[in-house]
Amino acid sequence: MADFPAAFVTGYPIRHSRSPLIHGHWLQNYGLDGSYRAIEVAPDGFADFIRGLHKNGFVGGNVTIPHKENAFALCSRRDAAAEEIGAVNTLWFEDGVLWGGNTDAYGFVANLDGMNPGWDRHKSALVLGAGGASRAVVYALKQRGFDDIRITNRTVERAREIADRFGRGTSSHEWRAIPELLEGAALIVNTTSLGMEGKDDGAVDLSNADRDVLVTDIVYVPLMTPLLQSANALGLRTADGLGMLLHQAVPGFERWFGTRPDVTPELRELIIADMNRSARNGFSK
Ligand code: ATR
Predict the structure, then answer these.
(1) What is the model's pLDDT at position 281?
(2) What is the position in ligand 1's atom list of the atom closest to the CA of 87?
């Protein structure tokens, strides 16, 4: 067993995860003894992996696709965000009990607070997509007092499920209603995989958007998604998805290693350089 705190990120696949780079950077920068490594676990081995965490000397870790809902079911206690979102991305032990939290909503707001102060002044938003990431964003917006959250999805039933889950202040809409939904929305958030590298699936037309809207994407590969590109071309303000990835890592690191780390321009540059390296080598993520 390691004599320093050991943490992990698990997913399937996991080899393109940037989390080891983020946590490794912080461990080194703060001069802390600890480790953080990527461990690939297939879905049929996930429950055993979680049950063995304590025995294997882990203080906790991150969970990513496709394990977030399973992790939710397998931990003993959950924080409020995880309960509301229905997914767990961060695990830790308290008095021997396995806790699960969700830091995606925190990462989303912390990034906008840092990069776009005042982003939450107007309480209306259009959310594209209705998967797990959408639930985290809708939860975050509700926490910030948004009272007009318009959720649209190619499969409208999934948008309806999220609106039902979060209730007052949310509404669900057909994908084809986007031109009308853009009017009066102060924030646009893409949570779909539209525009993810390698996918050629036509960008959303933003020409109806308000001039002072903020357009954000939680996809960060590529950094400049088709949605952000068209926002830029129209002179609209944008926020890319990398900041959310960096900020969602903060609470876990603090729990496992005892120091609250900073998200710095240096860290951002480190990850961008790695993304550029991967792109040159033909890896998209
Ligand atoms: P996650 O948990 O990461 O949010 P997900 O549950 O797979 O991932 O959701 C992916 C989202 O991208 C969904 O909203 C999906 O729409 P559907 O529910 O209709 O599948 C959306 N999406 C993927 N490809 C899309 C496309 N070409 N056009 C519009 N939406 C798309």
Answers:
(1) 82
(2) 2
> Do 49 and 94 contact (CB within 8 A), yes or no?
no
Q: Tell me, using a 6 A CB cutoff, whether residue 11 lines ligand 1.
A: no
> Best substitution site from 192, 194, 204 to test ligand 1's pocket, by max atoms within 8 Å of Cβ?
192
Judge whether 6-103+249-280 and 105-243 match in fold.
yes
Ligand 1 atom with least separation from CA of 175: 29
Asked about 68 being catalytic, the answer comes back as yes
Query: How many angstroms from the chain centroid is the CA of residue 152?
Result: 18
pTM of structure: 0.95
Task: Assess whether the previous peptide bond of 20 is cis (omega < 30° from 0).
Answer: no
3-state per-residue secondary structure call for 147-208: CEEEEEECCHHHHHHHHHHHCCCEEEEEHHHHHHHHCCCCEEEECCCCCCCCCCCCCCCCCC
Rg (CA), the chain: 19
Q: What DSSP designation does 43 have?
A: G
State yes or no: pLDDT of 199 exceeds 80. Answer: no
The token duo for 58 is 């882990």
What is the architecture, at CATH level 2, of domain 6-103+249-280?
3-Layer(aba) Sandwich (3.40)
**How many A from CA of 110 to the centre of ligand 1?**
24
Render the burial of 18-45: b for 16+ CB within 10 Å, e for the rest: bbbbbbebbbeeeebebbbebeebeeee
Specify the CATH number of the domain 105-243: 3.40.50.720
- Residue ranges per domain, the chain? 6-103+249-280, 105-243
Q: How far is the CA of 6 from the centre of ligand 1 (A)?
A: 34
1 pLDDT higher than 70: no
